[in-house]
Design brief:
three-stranded antiparallel sheet, 3 strands, globular
């Protein structure tokens, strides 16, 4: 199975927020997925982790 990774800009576009907001969510929301360091200077989020977080937020509402 191929893993898809997202940048902070892609996450921002997905949720309609500024690209720095996912970094803020890391600090303020303990349920927000931690990014994966693919290489030095290259940090991404797994799409599957973001989708699971999004589903959990929708179910909680």
């Amino acid at each position: 199975m191929l893993t898809t990774y997202l940048t902070d800009r892609q996450i921002g576009a997905r949720f309609g927020v500024h690209h720095l907001i996912p970094r803020r969510w890391l600090k303020t929301d303990p349920t927000f997925p931690k990014p994966i360091r693919l290489t030095p200077g290259c940090t991404r989020w797994r799409l599957s982790d973001i989708e699971a977080w999004e589903a959990a937020k929708a179910n909680a509402a």
